[in-house]
Amino acid sequence: MASSTSASTASTDASNDISSPLFAAVYDYVVPDRLLFAPHRRYLTADLDGRVLDVGAGTGTNFPYVAATDESVEFHAIEPDPHMRRQAETRAAETDCAVDLRDARAESMPYPDDAFDAVLASLVFCTIHDPDVALDEVARVLAPGGEFRFVEHVRNDGWRATGQNVLNPLWKRLAGGCQLNRDTIERFVSNDAFAVETIERLDAGIFPATPMVRGTMRRRR
């Protein structure tokens, strides 16, 4: 895929108050792709076709995997943090990934209804300010029959859940707004816009950001 990036300002509630320079600088070290997440990013990007949106692209860690897919993929991404977005732009250029990368929040996406054949989310719903609104936005921009693929860390069980609750205020401050104790999968499966195809709990990640869960849901027709 030929390298190309573009950026645009989405709306008045877009990203001018989302800025975590320190977390952006250390993200690729804290979330090691090659050692830990590469299989799950391959899961997210396998056999993509048509128009694809990466929600909360971060530093662009999905970009190399998308670049290796079929050239017929029309790839779009949003990332509200300017520090993350600059790194994503660099990664797009380095990996020859053609992506329309925009400054926008998941709660207010600058796309028309039914715009995409697939939407990807990787370690992002832990950070989104209003995940319910963001999920409704995913459903809105996803065409009927389209896939929503995700890899997320979620609230744990037992003493680990208690530990997450205790650590969450400090973790949120240090990790760019990431929250340890969200019931993300329950939120996903209870949304009537989606039909669940597969969900699996993973032996990946390091406490307190565990467990990891990945899956695919399909927008109902």
TrEMBL record:
Q: Name one GO biological process term.
A: methylation
What keywords were assigned to this record?
Answer: Methyltransferase, Transferase
Q: Does the keyword Disulfide bond apply?
A: no
Q: Which domain of life is it from?
A: Archaea
| Gene3D superfamilies in the record | Vaccinia Virus protein VP39
Which Pfam family name is an example for this entry?
Methyltransf_11
Q: Which residues form the signal peptide?
A: none
Q: Where in this chain does the record put each Methyltransferase type domain?
A: 53-149
As one GO molecular function, the record gives: S-adenosylmethionine-dependent methyltransferase activity
What is the name attached to this protein's record?
Type 11 methyltransferase
Task: Name the species this protein comes from.
Answer: Natrialba asiatica (strain ATCC 700177 / DSM 12278 / JCM 9576 / FERM P-10747 / NBRC 102637 / 172P1)
